[in-house]
Design a protein that fits this description.
about 550 residues; alpha/beta; Ubiquitin-like (UB roll); Rossmann fold; 3 domains; five-stranded parallel β-sheet; about 35% helix
Amino acid sequence: MDKTKMVRVIVDGKEYSYPAGTSYRALAADFQDRYEYDILLADRDNKLCELHKTLDRDCTLRFITAADKPGKQTYERSAVFVMLKAFYDTVGRERIERLSVEYSISNALFIQASGDFKLDKELLEKVEARMRELSEAKLPIKKSALSTEDAAELFEKEGLHYKAQLLGFRINSHVNIYTLDGFANYFYGYMVPDTGYVRVFALELFESGFVLRLPGQEDPSVVGPFRPSYKVFRELYDSSLRSEALGAANVAGLNTAISHGGARQIILANEAMMEKKIGDIAEEIAKRRDVRFVMIAGPSSSGKTTFSHRLSTQLIACGLRPHAIATDNYFKNRDDTPRDEKGEYDFECLEAMDVEGFNRDMTRLLHGERVELPQYNFKKGMREYNGNFLQLGPDDVLVIEGIHCLNDEFSHSLPRESKYKVYISCLTTINIDAHNRIPTTDARLLRRIERDARTRGYGAQATIKMWPSVRRGEERNIFPFQDSADVIFNSALVYETSLLKPYVQPLLFGIPRDCPEYTEAKRLLKFLNYFLPIPSDDVPKTSLMREFIGGGCYHA
């Protein structure tokens, strides 16, 4: 390319000129003083570019730091690469049987490690020290394209069999491989240009493995606080064992089963596991004779509605008479609803609920009184009373679902022994491979995209646009109370991404390239490419997934 050619670049609305072939890293250096945190990527006309890439056309640039979602993902991925390199250097490849990144917990990644070594504090201190050496050396992280066959052969030699197996399902003739000081690996997504960018981390023993602690979202310049939910961790750990039992601990195992005609068996076995868990919860509730209120809460697209129906069915089988109560009927009238900092109605905060009205009605029901329950008219923005009376008998139990159900302030007048609290979330345990985890939020977003399109007429662009706001509401109103639950219910199904792929893929392709949501849509499309699709024929009508794809027997 002619290096004398000048390229027009627009940054923050102002035009600049640079020689063609100038790296984005060089551009980032010119603008770094405008940013509080390190620039990790460049967004060129809604296309993410790694910093080693070079200018080849006129464009509009936006720089990405670890305070942005793509930057946070890039930093995490790069930190994992440095950790793997340091662990291999410290222990020796021949002594490692397993080194796998399992799931995210409280600003950290939980990692399992086993082999001919003792995983203890002393070893982790050595690995972390090696990570610091690699960071200070600012070694390049090189990206190169290999044929799929050569890459698979490379990973087989390295003992990374699942990576090699996964590449067998890739249609592309070539794959991108990252190399750090002779250590090669495959990663789903972008990386920083050298190890000097990876400075904020810590290693710490945790349960049966260790955690790689990473920057927090609010301040990427420091390691985030580590306050794990032990109940959620235990459910994740147990769920990962169930995934392994199904032969679907990673995408390669799932794809292999699907390609050999085993999709039906995985679906039915996975559904049976979930039904047993729901039955166990119902039996526990039945044993607690003081329980009159089953309080269910969880983040968006966790399948709360279908779970409530299925739990009610199991409660009936245990001799109880469940009654559904939607906390949405206790919204304050629209005129009394508080507004957020942007002046919009804040329907997710506790102050949007008629807390005293809810407690008054529930207390009266607990005392055996006959109560007329409200119904919220969302068109008029007010509660109405339409003759819906209820009186509890000795075997009656209320199944109450809503975002504040785990918050005792919402049900402050009800005795603790009268409540059984359930936290439900889609806690993904299947991963792409041992070093590329699947975020739980991705699974919920895919569910939400399909349900919004099917039931609300929203396009995928609208769902992706509102997702950060949904996540902020969850951080404020749901996640802080998850450990107060009596039980954690994992609604994730190992086969669900393969099921959702044919539904969600066309919706994502419909997002225009020139809109801000296209970057996230492209990432999700790349993610879906790893999965073989499966039809919905064998998914039971009672399945929680029917809440999202339709065709279920429950009104959800």
